[in-house]
Every structure is written in structure tokens, then in C-alpha cells.
């Protein structure tokens, strides 16, 4: 019987975790900081690998995913709000929004108070794709959270929050309030 390579790699990785060092009391030293940077990088790569096949099946890329995710967090967000969340140029976002609109994943309408504003929302088709992408990511994050436990998850959040400039942290907090 042929073994699933992903299961084998996961089992090997789980066994290796017991031998990996925990944070040193001297966690501000270069080696520890580099380990954190490397973990962030490889963690991000692993998360994106969880959804690559869904993105490819829909002809989408990671920029499309980021836009779908944040547009899906709250209906009728302005283009400016999405620009602020993603930290990209208007030109880059417009290219992604045009593509998502052409594919029937995102729709826009004029603002209620200011008709010049474009309010963005996912279409039913866009909601289905975003839900599938989120389901994959939730599965991976939930498994990692369960393995680490509540205290380390809170610590992980604090480290990531510490990396954010105050204005971006404010946007994150606002996003969580609007749920």
C-alpha cells in the first residue's frame, strides 16, 4: 500500500518537534530572532500551500486570495479600506479587483452617502470560494493551535501584534469588532 507523502511528512515533523529547542532565556539574540523570522517565512509558505490547489482551480493567485479574504470580512467596504488593510498600491488592487469582478467573485456599487465611493462585496460565487479557502486555512491553523495550547497561541498573537505599526494594529482591532 502506498503511503500518503503528506501524512508521512506530518508524522516525521511531529516527531521532530519534540527534539526542537524551546525559546532561550536569551531570546533577543541573533540566533533566536533568525529562528523566529524563518518560522514566520516557512509557516506562511505552508499555509499558502494548503490553498494553492483551490486557487489554481479558479485561476487565482495569492493577491486574489488576500482581496477575497478581506472583502469577505465585511460587506460594503470601500476600496480605500481594502487598500489600507492590504498595504498595496491602488493600481495593484484595481488589477486584482477587475479580475475578481470579471470572474464573478466580487461586485461593487456606489456609496450611499458619497456616490464616488466604490463599496465592495463578495458575490455568492465569491463567498463559496472564500469559504473553501478559509476552511482549508482554518483546518491548518486549528491543528497548530490545538497542538500548542491556549497560552502559546496568545503568545504567538502578541508577537505578531508587536510587529504591527500602531495604525495597522488599530485596523486589525477594528476588523475584529466588526464581525
Helix content: 55-70%
Distance between the termini: 46 Å
Beta-strand content estimate? 5-15%
CATH topology of the domain at 32-148: Arc Repressor Mutant, subunit A
Most strands sheet: 3 strands, antiparallel
CATH architecture of the domain at 32-148: Orthogonal Bundle
Would you list the SSEs in sequence order as H and E? HHHEHHEEHHH
List the topology elements.
Layout: H1 5-17, H2 30-57, H3 62-73, E1 77-78, H4 79-86, H5 90-102, E2 106-110, E3 118-122, H6 124-148, H7 150-163, H8 166-177
Antiparallel strand pairs: 1-3, 2-3
Notable characteristics:
179 residues, three-stranded antiparallel β-sheet, 70% helix, Arc Repressor Mutant, subunit A, mainly alpha, 3 strands
Structure description:
The protein is mainly α and about 180 residues long. The protein has a domain at about 30-150: Arc Repressor Mutant, subunit A. About 70% of the residues lie in helices and about 5% in strands. The protein has helices at about 5-15, 30-55, 60-75, 80-85, 90-100, 125-150, 150-165, 165-175; strands at about 75-80, 105-110, 120. The protein has a three-stranded antiparallel sheet with strand order 1-3-2. A hairpin with a 7-residue loop joins strand 2 (about 105-110) and strand 3 (about 120). The termini are far apart. Mean pLDDT is about 85; it is low at about 1-5.
Amino acid at each position: 500500500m502506498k503511503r500518503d507523502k503528506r501524512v508521512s511528512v506530518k508524522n516525521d515533523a511531529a516527531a521532530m518537534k519534540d527534539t526542537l529547542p524551546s525559546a532561550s532565556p536569551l531570546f533577543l539574540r541573533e540566533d533566536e530572532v533568525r529562528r523566529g523570522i524563518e518560522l514566520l517565512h516557512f509557516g506562511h509558505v505552508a499555509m499558502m500551500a494548503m490553498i494553492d490547489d483551490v486557487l489554481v482551480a479558479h485561476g487565482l493567485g495569492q493577491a486574489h486570495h488576500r482581496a477575497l479574504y478581506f472583502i469577505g470580512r465585511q460587506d460594503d467596504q470601500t476600496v480605500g479600506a481594502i487598500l489600507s488593510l492590504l498595504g498595496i498600491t491602488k493600481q495593484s488592487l484595481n488589477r486584482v479587483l477587475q479580475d475578481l469582478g470579471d470572474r464573478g467573485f466580487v461586485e461593487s456599487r456606489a456609496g450611499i452617502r458619497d456616490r464616488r465611493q466604490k463599496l465592495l462585496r463578495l458575490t455568492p460565487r465569491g463567498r463559496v470560494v472564500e469559504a473553501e479557502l478559509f476552511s482549508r486555512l482554518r483546518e491548518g491553523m486549528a491543528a497548530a493551535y490545538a497542538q500548542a495550547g491556549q497560552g502559546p497561541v496568545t503568545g504567538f498573537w502578541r508577537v505578531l501584534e508587536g510587529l504591527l505599526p500602531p495604525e495597522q494594529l488599530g485596523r486589525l482591532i477594528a476588523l475584529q469588532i466588526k464581525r
